[in-house]
Amino acid sequence: MLKIVFKNLEPSQLARDIVKDKIAPVIEKFPSLADHKVTLTLEMENSPNQAGPDLFTVSSMVTGKTFKNLKMKKSSRNFYIATAELVDGFNELLSRESDRLFKNNRKPKLTTGEFYE
Predict the structure, then answer these.
(1) Does 113 reside within a domain?
(2) Distance linking the first and last C-alpha atoms of the chain
C-alpha cells in the first residue's frame, strides 16, 4: 500500500503522479513489499525570516512484517532531484535489506564428520 502525504506543501495531483511514477518500478521490483505500508512524505521548507530558495524534502518509511521500519530522507532545492535521489537510495536500501534478510534466513549445513572419497 502506497500513501503520499504532503507536509507544508499544497497537495498537488501532478506531484503525486510524479512520485508514483518514479517509485512504482522500485515497488514492483520487490514483490515482498505488496503487504507492507510505504509512506512517502513530500515537504517544502520556506523560511519567512530569510530570503532564499525553497528546500524540498522527500522521505520514505516502510512498515511491515519483512522490512521493518526502513526510513530514508533526501532533500534538494529542486523537487525532481529530491525525488530522483530518494528513488535511487530507496532501491539501494531495499536491495541491501533483502540481501541481509536472505543471508540471515539461510540455514547452516549440517556436518557429520564423515568424509566421502
Answers:
(1) no
(2) 54
Between CA 32 and CA 38 the distance in angstroms is 12
Residue 2, strand partner residues: 38
* Alpha-helical runs (H) found in 1-117: 13-29, 79-105
What are the tens digits of pLDDT across the range 34-79? 888 999 999 998 766 667 778 899 999 999 888 888 899 999 999 9
pTM for the predicted model, two decimal places: 0.77
Q: Which amino acid is at 25?
A: P
State which residues form the domain around 88. Answer: 2-105
CATH, residue 23: 3.30.160.100
**How many structural domains is the chain composed of?**
1
